């Protein structure tokens, strides 16, 4: 299955929550109206399966992950000790592309994924071009010297990022201080519904 590349607002409206990296007043007003000519007309109460499916789709859309990758991530979360839902959030948040975004080294997750895929990201001094690479605690993440000098990235690095509690950044270098927990992040999807979807 190909990654969704259509209008981001349409995707957010389909899921009923803001899955985008940035908010806009126009999108917030329209979130409760599904895309299409008829909007709310004829909207039926979803089945349990339908509800679980929507929660899964929200998470995939938010992090920009394809079905096979996401399915494997859920299986990995189930196998680990502890709360499965929290483990899933931890795995999603510690993906390299998401960490680049969370550290403010990129404006959006899409941009972060592009930076990683094109070989512009360094982890512990080594080039890593795999967006799904799982970051470990205290691994240093930065951008290549070359990409830091490009005008759009240089401008981003000048801005003061609003960092979550489990990460830190100084200049162009950031790191994961500890593994994130579910209460650290506001996620617009229900992890329990996702786990149940894959345990059918």
Q: Any overview of this molecule?
A:
This protein is α+β, with helices and mostly antiparallel strands. The protein folds into 2 domains: 8-91 and 186-198, Ribosomal protein S4/S9, N-terminal domain (Ribosomal Protein S4 Delta 41, Chain A, domain 1, Orthogonal Bundle); 95-178, Roll (Structural Genomics Hypothetical 15.5 Kd Protein In mrcA-pckA Intergenic Region, Chain A), CATH 3.10.290.10. It contains 10 helices and 5 strands. A 5-stranded antiparallel β-sheet has the order 2-1-3-5-4. Strand 1 and strand 2 (126-127) form a beta hairpin. Helix 3 (48-63) crosses helix 10 and helix 5 crosses helix 10 (191-198). The longest helix has 16 residues, at 48-63. The two termini are 21 Å apart. The model has no long low-confidence stretch (mean pLDDT 87).
Question: Strand order of the main beta sheet, please?
Answer: 2-1-3-5-4
Q: Could you state the order of secondary-structure elements as H and E?
A: HHHHHHHEEEHHEEH
What is Rg? 18 Å
Coarse morphology? globular
How many strand elements?
A: 5
CATH topology of the largest domain: Ribosomal Protein S4 Delta 41, Chain A, domain 1
Termini Cα gap = 21 Å
- The CATH H-level superfamily of the largest domain is Ribosomal protein S4/S9, N-terminal domain
Q: Report low-confidence residues grouped into runs of 5 or more.
A: none
Based on secondary structure, the structural category is: alpha+beta
């Amino acid at each position: 299955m190909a990654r969704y590349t259509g209008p981001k607002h349409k995707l957010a409206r389909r899921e009923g929550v803001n899955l985008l990296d940035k908010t806009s007043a126009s999108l917030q007003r329209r979130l409760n109206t599904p895309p299409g000519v008829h909007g709310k007309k004829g909207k039926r109460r979803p089945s349990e399966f339908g509800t679980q499916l929507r929660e899964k789709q929200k998470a995939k859309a938010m992090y920009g992950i394809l079905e096979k990758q996401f399915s494997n991530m859920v299986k990995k979360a189930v196998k680990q000790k502890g709360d499965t839902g929290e483990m899933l959030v931890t795995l999603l948040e510690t993906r390299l592309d998401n960490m680049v975004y969370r550290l403010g080294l990129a404006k959006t997750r899409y941009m972060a994924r592009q930076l990683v895929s094109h070989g512009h990201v360094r982890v512990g001094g080594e080039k890593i071009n795999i967006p799904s690479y799982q970051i470990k605690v205290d691994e240093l993440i930065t951008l290549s010297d070359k990409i830091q000098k490009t005008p759009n990235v240089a401008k981003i690095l000048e801005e003061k990022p609003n960092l979550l509690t489990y990460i830190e950044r100084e200049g162009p270098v950031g790191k994961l201080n500890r593994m994130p927990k579910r209460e650290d992040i506001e996620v617009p999807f229900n992890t329990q519904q996702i786990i149940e979807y894959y345990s059918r």
